[in-house]
Amino acid sequence: MLSDVMNKIKNVEENILIKKAEAQTKAKNMIAEAEKKGQAEVAAAVLRAEEDAKKLLDEADQRAAAITAELKKSVEETQEEIKRLSASRLDDVAHMIAERIVNG
Hints:
Layout: H1 2-103
């Protein structure tokens, strides 16, 4: 009878060790699976971030091109205005020089 009890205790202890080993293996597998899933999610997030960054850079390039075109147009208009004003003043200066030469 005592040996039966001892055998039962031994069997229970062995079952506990087996269950513990199974639980540890299951936990390791769950951790590995979670890490794998996490890495996949991180990779997907990085890809999305790269795509978003590319879109933002493209939009910034488009805005910069539009601003550059506006500034170029403004500069060209200012240049034309300066040319027009300088042309009219050139005539005035030429008349003034001619008057001084003539009047001595």
